[in-house]
């Protein structure tokens, strides 16, 4: 491969795709970690209680709601 | 050679194709994520299951660790579905 192929539009597209996947992966990992801490208080059992799984699901969705509020607030400051 | 180093791209003797490069990138990313995931699970399960370290790993500690790994993987799935299946 000619090193200048790294700058090709196709290569940039592929790299951006991987970058996006990486960002999504990072968010999933971080959110799982934080929601685990918030929702799983006792030692893990052989399955989640319904309140634990509801908490985990709610946690992710509330985080997204919060992200939206933060973004809007930040944008309104300009 | 550690998992992040790769053949030098600019060397005149390099015959790597761009698809090989992308494959290498994806493989290394996957490896990095697996490592990160394992490290997270270690931390969480140590916290939940080994509350008072003793001179050996007890049976209840071992089974707690097994359950913990399963639950954490399950939690990842729950979070993933909540993020990607719930339009707002």
TrEMBL record, chain A:
Pfam families: zf-Tim10_DDP
Record bears the keyword Disulfide bond: yes
Membrane topology: Peripheral membrane protein
Subcellular location: Mitochondrion inner membrane
InterPro entries recorded: Tim10-like, Tim10-like_dom_sf
Subunit text: Heterohexamer.
Task of the protein: Mitochondrial intermembrane chaperone that participates in the import and insertion of some multi-pass transmembrane proteins into the mitochondrial inner membrane. Also required for the transfer of beta-barrel precursors from the TOM complex to the sorting and assembly machinery (SAM complex) of the outer membrane. Acts as a chaperone-like protein that protects the hydrophobic precursors from aggregation and guide them through the mitochondrial intermembrane space.
Family, as annotated: Belongs to the small Tim family.
Protein name, as recorded: Mitochondrial import inner membrane translocase subunit
The species this protein was found in: Hevea brasiliensis
Organism taxonomic ancestry: Eukaryota, Viridiplantae, Streptophyta, Embryophyta, Tracheophyta
TrEMBL record, chain B:
Annotated membrane topology: Peripheral membrane protein
Protein name: Mitochondrial import inner membrane translocase subunit
Source superkingdom: Eukaryota
GO biological process entries: protein insertion into mitochondrial inner membrane; protein transport
UniProt keyword annotation of Zinc present: yes
Keyword Transcription regulation on entry: no
Primary localisation category: mitochondrion
SUPFAM superfamilies tied to this protein: Tim10-like
Domain Tim10-like span(s) in chain numbering: 24-83
GO annotations of cellular component type: mitochondrial inner membrane; mitochondrial intermembrane space chaperone complex
Cell location: Mitochondrion inner membrane; Mitochondrion intermembrane space
Keyword annotations: Chaperone, Disulfide bond, Membrane, Metal-binding, Mitochondrion, Mitochondrion inner membrane, Protein transport, Translocation, Transport, Zinc
The protein's assembly and partners: Heterohexamer; composed of 3 copies of TIM8 and 3 copies of TIM13, named soluble 70 kDa complex. Associates with the TIM22 complex, whose core is composed of TIM22.
């Amino acid at each position: 491969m000619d090193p200048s192929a790294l700058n090709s539009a196709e290569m940039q597209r592929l790299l951006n795709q991987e970058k996006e996947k990486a960002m999504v992966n990072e968010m999933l990992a971080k959110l799982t970690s934080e929601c685990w801490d918030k929702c799983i208080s006792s030692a893990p059992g052989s399955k989640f209680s319904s309140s634990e799984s509801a908490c985990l699901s709610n946690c992710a969705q509330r985080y997204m709601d919060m992200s939206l509020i933060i973004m809007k607030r930040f944008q309104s400051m300009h | 050679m550690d998992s992040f180093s790769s053949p030098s791209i600019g060397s005149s003797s390099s015959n790597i194709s761009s698809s090989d490069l992308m494959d290498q990138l994806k493989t290394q990313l996957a490896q990095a994520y697996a490592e990160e995931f394992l490290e997270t699970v270690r931390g969480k399960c140590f916290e939940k299951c080994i509350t008072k370290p003793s001179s050996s790993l007890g049976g209840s500690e071992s089974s707690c660790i097994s359950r913990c790994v399963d639950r954490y993987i399950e939690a990842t799935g729950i979070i993933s579905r909540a993020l990607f299946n719930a339009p707002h």
